[in-house]
Design a protein that fits this description.
It contains 15 helices and 20 strands. It is an alpha/beta fold and about 475 residues long. The chain folds into two domains: about 100 residues, Urease, subunit C, domain 1 (Roll), CATH 2.30.40.10; about 325 residues, Alpha-Beta Barrel (TIM Barrel). The protein is globular and about 65 Å long. The two termini are about 40 Å apart. It binds zinc ion (ZN).
């Protein structure tokens, strides 16, 4: 007797294609899958005309950048569940040491989330390098983050993550240089298998070009794109890759969405750099004529860049899709003046529909939204795979019916969407996490706090240096 059985659906599995079949769940795991599978089940779902995707793993969210967590996390978790997301990997960044903040964030997520979760820890200064060992051994964190774009004055007022109970985000000054990056690589080389996520944008180029564009009196997304040109992204990618190869530390490069940046990715992969690369849903469907609310770094660029991003996911040059979500309200984003407006926006719950609507082959969508992030961050094959014995994490999706994005209908603390008015396909009807239905046609039947922390080990990452 199974707990759950989805019958006659189209199963989307990277490497196996899209095939008709059934999926059976027992005790939180996939008990069996395929066209021969059948039997009694507590709940049977007719999957006729629907696709089953492996549960979306969003490897790039920043829920802590909008306080307070107690109000944000439950809503954002629901919004993610409505989008087929079964695993959330969030960044933590704090100016002080991480002794207290990582356990505090874990406890808060354990109270509020519907889905399983893990963290990346941001290294902002040399003191943080002393925390790496503690994060790996005691906290099960095996991925770290460095912002190459955080040189002063770009980062003199950098927003820090909220801790539980905190009503407002605090601000700290951060000052990056390549010497710090070298020291970080040297420290991480002592922990085989640990991965370094690097925001690749060269600060000096951004500082110089921002001054030039502002002087011209321009604003809007095209000016923003020119102020942080993609050549700066390519320069940073090459710098990071040289150090990654030198120290043998695997890289993760988030949010590459420019043609020039993707060309750099192709080059460093050809050089044998152990790297996994992410792009974001907004680069797949938006260009620099979009609403200025779509200000994000790296910037959204031209139709040529957009086409390159889609192609890169389709061919596997890019391995993962991450939302880079910060669920700001318009007021928090500070929309009144363009150059001081905060970057990023919500989008985790729309990651899957946007990827499907972009026209990517469904198998490529499943690879980039689930298998890719699971492999990158030591969760595969427990996560990211629809095979017997794996966690029963999946989304039942209608890839045909179209629905327009209306911010008021989205479950989020954000009151706007950069996809406002866009007709998207690929909305989930049902989301299952470890066998529990966490989203069911508009309802959220599961208990908040059922999500489990994914304690990762460096060994889990070994062998997955390359995509
Ligand atoms: Zn980010």
């Amino acid at each position: 007797m199974y707990d759950l059985l989805v019958r006659n659906a189209l199963l989307v599995r990277p490497g196996r294609g899209v095939t008709e079949g059934n999926i059976a769940v027992k005790d939180g795991l996939i008990a069996d899958i395929g066209d021969e599978v059948d039997g009694e089940a507590t709940r049977v779902i007719d999957g006729e005309g629907l696709h089953v995707f492996p549960g979306v793993i969003d490897p790039h969210t920043h829920p802590g950048l909008v306080a307070p967590l107690e109000r944000r996390l439950p809503l954002e978790s629901r919004g993610a569940a409505a989008g087929g997301v079964t695993t959330l990997i969030s960044y933590i960044r704090r100016p002080e040491d991480y002794r207290n903040s990582v356990p505090a964030r874990r406890a808060s997520a354990e109270e509020h989330l519907l889905q399983d979760f893990a963290f990346h820890v941001t290294l902002l200064n040399e003191r943080h390098l002393d925390d790496i060992d503690m994060c790996v051994r005691e906290f099960g964190v095996t991925s770290f983050k460095i912002y190459m774009n955080s040189r002063m004055p770009l980062s003199e007022r950098m927003r820090m993550d909220a801790l539980p109970g905190q009503q407002l985000n605090d601000i700290a000054a951060v000052d990056y240089d390549d010497g710090f990056l070298l020291k970080a690589f040297r420290s991480l080389a002592d922990h085989p298998g640990v991965r370094l996520n690097i925001h690749c944008e060269n600060s000096d180029i951004a500082i110089a070009e921002t001054a030039r564009v502002i002087e011209q009196g321009r604003e809007g997304l095209a000016a923003w794109s020119e102020s942080r040109p993609s050549i700066g992204e390519a320069v940073a990618i090459h710098t990071a890759a040289v150090m990654s190869r030198e120290f043998g530390v695997p890289l993760y490069i988030p949010h590459v969405g420019s043609r020039t940046g993707l060309e750099a990715v192709r080059e460093i992969k050809q050089l044998g750099t152990p790297v996994i690369v992410e792009t974001c849903p907004h680069y797949l469907v938006l260009t620099d004529d979009a609403d200025p609310a779509a200000k994000v770094s790296p910037p959204i660029r031209t139709p040529g860049d957009q086409k390159a991003a889609i192609e890169a996911v389709a061919t596997g040059l890019v391995d993962t899709l991450g939302s880079d979500e910060i669920p700001y309200t318009r007021e928090e984003k500070g929309m009144s003046t363009f150059w001081t407006e905060n970057t990023a926006f919500s989008g985790c719950g729309l990651l899957l529909p946007v990827a499907i609507t972009s026209g990517l082959p469904l198998e490529a969508v499943a690879r980039a939204t689930s298998e890719g992030p699971a492999r990158a961050f030591g969760l595969f094959p427990r996560k990211g795979s629809l095979e017997p014995g794996c966690d029963a994490d999946f989304a039942v999706v209608d890839v045909h019916s179209e629905r327009e994005v209306r911010p008021a209908e989205l479950v989020s603390s954000s009151d706007f969407s950069v996809y406002d008015g866009m007709a998207l396909r690929g909305w989930p009807t049902l989301t299952v996490s470890r066998g529990d239905v966490i989203f069911d046609r508009g309802a959220f039947p599961a208990r908040h706090g059922r999500g489990r922390y994914l304690f990762r080990t460096a060994e889990g990452l070994a062998g997955h240096g390359r995509a």
